[in-house]
Structure prediction request, 170 residues.
Amino acid sequence: MTALTSTLINSGCLQLVSNEYERLQGAIEGLGTAVEGSLGCQKHELETKHKIELSKAQENADALSKEKTRLEDSIAANERACQLEIERDWYKKEASHHALHLDEVLEQTKAQQKDLSNRLEESEQDRKWLKGQVEKLTLRLREHGVETDGAGDALSKSMEAATLEMPGRN
Prediction:
C-alpha cells in the first residue's frame, strides 16, 4: 500500500504542482501583460510630454528669432537715424555758414543800394540845377537879343524826359 499511496500522493501532488504551475504561469503572463500595458502608457505619456516640450522649445526659438529680427531692424533703424542726425547737423552748419555769407552780401547790397540812391538824388539835383542854369542862360541870351532857335527849350525838355524815364520814377 505504500506504493499505491505513494503513487496516489505523487499523482495528487503532481496534479497540484501542475495546477499551481499553470496558475503561476497565468499570473506571470497577466503580470507581463500588465507591465507591458503600464510601460506602453508611460511610453506614450513620455512621448507626448516630449512632443509638447519640443513644441514649446520650437515656439520659444521662433519667438527668440522674431525678437532677434526685431532688434536687428531696430538697431539698423537707430543707426540710420544717427546717420541722418549727423547729416542734418552738417547741413545745419552749412546753412548757418551760408546764412552768414548771405547776411554779408545783403549788407553789401544795401550799402550799394544806398550809395546808388544817393548818387541818383545828387544826379537829380544836378539835373534840376543844370535845367535852371539853361533856362537862366536862355533868358539872358534872349534879353541880349540872341536867338536860341529853341535849343534851350529842347535841352530843357530832353532833361525832363530823361528824369521821367529813370527807373523807379513815374
